[in-house]
Structures are given as structure tokens and as C-alpha cells.
Amino acid sequence: MASPDFSPAAERNKQPILDLLRRVLPEYGNALEIASGTGQHVVWFAQQLPHWTWQPTDAHRGALYNIEVRANEANLDNVYAPVQLDVLTPLWPVGEDRFDLVLCINMLHIAPWASCAALMQGCARHLTPAGLLATYGPYFEDGVPPVPSNLAFDGSLREHDPSWGIRRREDVEQQAAAAGLVLQARYSLPANNLLLVFARITDNPTR
Asked: How far apart are CA 52 and CA 25, in angstroms?
């Protein structure tokens, strides 16, 4: 059996992300992870938050192997079998399930901009009334001078694929608002990354 892919960045940021999740999440719940990649995050969070169940997903079939192998090696019973999910698909393959958390780490800058609106619309369909969306990654922000490393990273992303690139936080908020979600909290994390937490707009009775 081939070893699953390994991400040094995921290994570095898994604990800082977990520390913040512990601050914003209740003790019990069920989570949908978008773009689970190597599976390092979902396995770590499932180990450290044992009263949560986790549904990992990824758009790429090869990533499903990474997730399945890691979850099996960790012998976890709170991680479901990974599902192939592209946020741009009109109907996500999770049935009518509702989640207390949708977690999306390092996806928005390596996907077409349309994926942001699709993520928000999918969360509006699949979050519980009190559910949260948490996104992690690099962002540009109005009034905040961009650091050179993020500018260089953005340039390399756009050279690889012109539809990729670091997103403006305010643009992401606008897409969230169009889907009935509002930015509830913004946390700075190491390596010039942010964790953004979105919740439903409570004064919208149709959502």
C-alpha cells in the first residue's frame, strides 16, 4: 500500500487551527470538511475532538485515498468514509444532511473564484440553524498592507492558473452575505493566514 501524501504546511497549522476551533465550537457536533486533501487535518481534529463526527470530502479522487488510509491507520470511528465533492456541483453528495460546522482549509486561493460563491451557497443549504462555516488561508484585506510573501505567493498562483489567487476578505464576505451568512469572527494565525468564522444572518427568516 502506497503511503498517503504528506503536507508540511498542514502539519504546522493543524494545532493553531484546532486551538481556535476549540474556542468557537460546542463540545458535541458534526462537521463537513471541504477539500480535505491529505487527510492530516481531519484525522487530527477527530482525535482531539472525539465528540464530533467528521465527514471528509475532496474534489480529487486521489485525495480520497489519502484520507481513507490516514483515518484507518488512526483507527477512528468518528470519521466517515471520504466523499468526492466539488463545491461547484449544484447538489452536494451529502443528501439532506445538516452540519454544525463546515470547515474549508486552503481551498479558496487554489480554486476558481466561482468556488467561493458555491461554497457559501452550499453552506446555506447544509448548515444547521446555529451552524458555522470556518475558512482558513491567506487573504488580502482593505487597509492592511499585504506582506511580501503573500504577494509573491499570489503571483505564483496566478502564473500556475489565472483563475487562482489570494482572495480579498471583503469579497469573500460579500459572497457570504449573498448566501445569508455573515462574518462572525476573524482570527490571525501564523504565516500570515486568517481563520474566518461565518454564521447565518439571524434577521433573515428565510434562511
From this structure: 10
Residue 203: what pLDDT?
A: 54
Q: 196 pairs with which residues across the strands?
A: 135, 186
Burial 106-120, CB ≥16 within 10 A → b, else e = bbbbbbebebbbbbb
State how far Cα 2 lies from the chain centre: 26
Do residues 56 and 67 make contact, with C-beta atoms less than 8 angstroms apart?
yes
pTM recorded for the entire structure: 0.95
Residues whose CB is less than 8 angstroms from the CB of residue 174 and which lie 6 or more positions away in sequence, other chains included: none
Say if residues 4 and 69 touch (Cβ distance below 8 Å): yes
The whole-angstrom separation of Cα 116 and Cα 132 is 16
d(CA 170, CA 178): 12
Q: Which three cell numbers stand for residue 81?
A: 468514509
List of domains in the chain: 25-183 (3.40.50.150)
